[in-house]
TrEMBL record:
It is an enzyme of class 6 (ligase). It comes from Stenotrophomonas lactitubi. The lineage of its organism: Bacteria, Pseudomonadati, Pseudomonadota, Gammaproteobacteria, Lysobacterales. Residues 1-33, 170-207 are annotated as: Disordered. It holds the Pfam family DNA_ligase_A_C. InterPro entries: DNA_ligase_ATP-dep_C, DNA_ligase_ATP-dep_cent, LigD_ligase_dom, LigD_PE_domain, LigD_pol_dom, NA-bd_OB-fold, NHEJ_ligase_prk, NHEJ_LigD. It catalyses: ATP + (deoxyribonucleotide)n-3'-hydroxyl + 5'-phospho-(deoxyribonucleotide)m = (deoxyribonucleotide)n+m + AMP + diphosphate. NCBIfam families: LigD_PE_dom (TIGR02777), ligD_pol (TIGR02778), NHEJ_ligase_lig (TIGR02779), NHEJ_ligase_prk (TIGR02776). GO terms for biological process: DNA recombination; DNA repair. One of its GO terms (molecular function) is DNA binding. Residues 1-12 have a biased composition (Basic residues). It comes from the Bacteria. This is DNA ligase (ATP). The keyword Disulfide bond does not apply.
Length: 825
């Protein structure tokens, strides 16, 4: 559904004789914010609850007659209704008599929600498994589409079995005050506990201030905000003795927190602002019983055995997992206006544990063992941990690398810059080996190659990530003893950090038996050397699950699709750059549930932009991109087909491309389709318009007309409709200009409806979501006669054609200065 139905049913505007319901969807603020939900109690002719989940820039909505039940497994009918604008989430009041939905509306509950994977995919599949974080409703739920017949699609809303389930329903909660968001650091699966913060936060700060001042070396002044982290040294063996304590080395992202006057700012180890990205961590830090604190720790996701899982953490961050985040805090250099960085570590940690509490949740204390370093290290290996961090118990907190903190790993690993790669050999895909370097005396020093530790998935993902970083000039001068020539290297900008396991250093200063571990997207070049040089922004799009099969019949994977679009970017971008797009996304591949998306939404990527366009339903954010990074980010989100507007985001009201889609009915031969395309070309030429031809990649042909953006959409629509009708009247045995399938057997439908505002057609070189993996390929008119079918170019043949091309088949299309016969020049 769309907001068109919402507006069609209402007299909006809020004036006399109009409904006070909101008329527009507000512009999204932070694109990374979590999606919202709202439940409204609607006293209409039939009292019911309206249940709404944010998806694709609107509130997907269901009417629940009896309201949600909190009893496990109890099914409540949820009737799917029209989409509502996001601004409706805050609507309360009276809808006047005589209007659609007349009656009083109250907000029953609101908050955020999340599901595992893509919500639009779940909606299309008919089952949405999700969690709510609200004031009255919380925990796990599901919506399941039924096969029941009716005027509207019917679903069932069901509470899952968890600690939030109980013998109650929505009506039982009406007379109880909404549950306050828990000001506690406990995990979301725990019942809400009393907040540790008192009613007088400044008095609490005073108590913690006095307590902190008792630590040895404490100073009566605030520890600086924006402080730099203490970094670890490296050892091969764990230190022993009572001077050392030992913590688990957590596998996540270093995270620093500044709590100042009750407000929180989160930072990465290299100073990036992560506050908006992790609101649950912000809330947990704000719930501490102080208004001022400086925290240092690691952001992780834990598995069932308490081990940190870096891959799971990445899924949570990209929005495809509901697993809870944990901020494991291991130091407290300042609290309640007192600088305790010079106090002994054991005293700081004791105060930190008292501040956080004993029960781990979103905030957790990093436990430690004093003494017995070798035994602790051995035990950590048996438990499956990466290693330990050993710290001197009496050491201060310093803002640099220091020997008082050392990391000991079960593997010898370190981080290096990727500076290039060699060509693959034999059956290997992507590349042969990565060339590595480390910062040294203001430049870079070559440290060797890594050619193992990759599977096909990581080879494809790394190839895609490094492709946008390619440079022609050598990044550094290779030593004379390397067994290959610099001319054979494909160089890349030295901005991507790789973690590599190795067995020591060779006599020439090169890594021995290196094995690739992973990319470190949280680290940059200056982190390796701790230099003052500014960061270099590298474009890096990782393709997750590249092994996932997309075209089963052709045995083509998501990685293959990404490789195709990466190689074809220079041809595709001129077709789509700076144009509103509709995306056909197929998360589970061709033949499974696919869906169109035109609205901008969270998780699409930082290079996928939003453009607000005025529609009948209000202002809506549409998607557009302008570079290869944006294209690959769309592919990462399982986009297969790209359908641009016939106008640009700079001038959306005046089309500069028209498309006539020749769609053959049953019994029409391919020869007839080609003859029809040439016929359309000739008739357009008679009106003074030159055109170009494209195979649709399906079963038809597109005839494309470039224009100067002079005419508006009404003029374009009128011209195209009249043109198609004229052709159908002149040759009714060959053409039809109506969508009616009953009239299309044996004739070609000249689809002129692509030329209305908001309509789209597939772009040149786009893949099609069909078993054949066909591509919409542009041709020169003289080539059309030699082509045997509309899908004559599957992916591999399209790539081969592009490599053979010496010039664009549509060369000169952008230089044409033509206008519609009805428009003023």
């Amino acid at each position: 559904m769309s907001l068109h139905q919402y507006r069609r049913k209402r007299r909006l505007g809020g004036g006399s004789g109009q409904t006070p319901e909101p008329d527009e969807a507000p512009a999204r603020g932070n694109p990374k914010r979590r999606p919202i939900f709202v439940v409204q109690l609607h006293h209409a002719s039939s009292r019911h609850y309206d249940f709404r989940l944010e998806m694709d820039g609107v509130l997907k909505s269901w009417a629940v007659p009896k309201g949600p039940s909190l009893r496990v497994g109890e099914k409540r009918l949820a009737v799917e209704v029209e989409d509502h604008p996001l601004s409706y989430a805050g609507f309360e009041g009276d809808i006047p008599e005589g209007h659609y939905g007349a009656g009083h509306v109250d907000v029953f509950d609101h908050g955020s929600w999340a599901c595992e994977g893509d919500p639009l995919q779940a909606l299309a599949a008919g089952k949405i498994d999700f969690v709510l974080h609200g004031q009255r409703l919380a925990g796990s739920w599901k919506l399941v589409r039924t096969a029941m017949k009716g005027r509207q699609v019917q679903w069932l809303l069901i509470k899952r079995d968890d600690e939030q389930a109980r013998d109650a329903e929505a009506d039982d909660l009406l007379h109880a005050p909404p549950r306050k968001p828990a000001k506690t650091n406990r995990a979301s699966t725990k019942k809400a506990a009393p907040a540790p913060r008192t009613a007088h936060p400044r008095k609490a700060d005073a108590r913690w201030h006095a307590r902190a001042l008792k630590l040895d070396g404490a100073r009566d002044k605030s520890y600086p905000r924006q402080f730099k982290p203490q970094l670890t040294d490296h050892r091969d063996t764990a230190p022993d003795g009572e001077r050392w304590l030992h913590e688990i080395k957590w596998d996540g992202y270093r995270l620093l927190a500044d709590l100042h006057e009750g407000e929180v700012k989160l930072r990465s180890r290299n100073g990036l602002d992560w506050t908006a990205d992790f609101p649950e961590v912000v809330q947990a830090v704000q719930a501490l019983p102080v208004r001022d604190a400086r925290l240092d720790g690691e952001l992780v996701v834990l598995d069932d055995n308490g081990r940190s899982d870096f891959a799971a953490l990445q899924r949570v961050i990209d929005g495809s997992s509901k697993q809870p985040l944990r901020y494991i805090v291991f130091d407290l250099p300042g609290v309640a206006g007192v600088d305790i960085s010079r106090a002994p570590l054991l005293e700081r940690k004791a105060l930190l544990k008292a501040l956080i509490g004993d029960t781990p949740g979103t905030l957790a204390f990093s436990e430690h063992v004093i003494d017995h370093g070798p035994a602790v290290f051995e035990a950590s290996g048996k438990a499956g941990f990466e290693g330990i961090v050993s710290k001197q118990v009496d050491a201060p907190y310093v803002n640099t690398r220091a020997r008082s903190w050392v990391k000991v790993k079960h593997e010898d690993t370190d981080e290096f810059l990727i500076i290039g790669h060699t060509a693959p050999k034999g059956s290997r895909v992507g590349f042969g080996s990565l060339l590595l370097a480390t910062p040294d005396k203001g430049g870079l020093r070559y440290v060797g190659r890594v050619g193992t530790g990759f599977d096909d998935e990581s080879l494809r993902a790394l190839s895609a990530a490094l492709a946008p970083l390619a440079v022609k000039a050598a990044v550094l001068e290779l030593p004379s003893h390397v067994p290959f020539r610099a001319a054979s290297v494909r160089w890349v900008k030295p901005v991507t950090v790789a973690e590599v396991a190795f067995r020591g250093w060779g006599k020439e200063g090169l890594l021995r038996q290196a094995s690739f571990k992973r990319l470190r997207s949280d680290k940059q070049k200056e982190d390796l050397a701790m230099s003052e040089a500014p960061a270099d922004d590298g474009d890096d799009v990782a393709i997750t699950h590249p092994e996932r099969v997309v075209f089963a019949k052709k045995k083509l994977s998501k990685g293959d699709v990404a490789d195709y679009y990466r190689q074809m970017a220079r041809w595709i971008l001129p077709e789509i750059s700076g144009r509103p797009l509709s995306l056909l996304r197929c998360p589970d591949g061709v033949g499974k549930a696919c869906f169109f998306q035109k609205h901008h939404g969270q998780g699409l990527g930082d290079a996928v932009h939003a453009v607000p366009l005025q529609q009948k339903s209000g202002r809506e954010d549409y998607v557009y991109i302008d570079d290869e990074r944006g294209l690959l980010q769309l592919v990462q989100m399982n986009t297969l087909e790209l359908h641009p507007w016939g106008a640009t985001v700079a001038d959306p009201e005046h089309p500069d491309r028209l498309v006539f889609d020749l769609d053959p009915g049953e019994g029409v031969s391919w020869a007839d389709v080609k003859r029809g395309a040439r016929d359309v070309r000739d008739r357009l030429q008679e009106t003074g318009l030159r055109s170009f031809v494209r195979l649709s990649g399906g079963k038809g042909v597109h005839v494309v007309v470039p224009l100067l953006p002079k005419a508006d959409w009404e003029d374009a629509k009128a011209f195209c409709e009249a043109f198609a009708q004229a052709m159908a009247e002149q040759a009714p045995d060959r053409y039809v200009a109506t969508m009616s399938k009953a009239k299309r057997s044996g004739v070609i439908f000249i689809d002129w409806l692509r030329n209305t505002r908001g309509a789209t057609s597939v772009c040149s070189w786009s893949l099609r979501a069909r078993e054949s993996a066909g591509v919409a390929v542009p041709l020169r008119w003289e080539e059309l006669a030699r082509v045997g079918a509309a899908d004559a170019f599957p992916m591999d043949k399209a790539l081969a054609r592009a490599k053979r091309l010496k010039a664009d088949p549509w060369q000169g299309i952008d230089a044409l200065k033509q206008t519609l016969p009805t428009s003023k020049r």
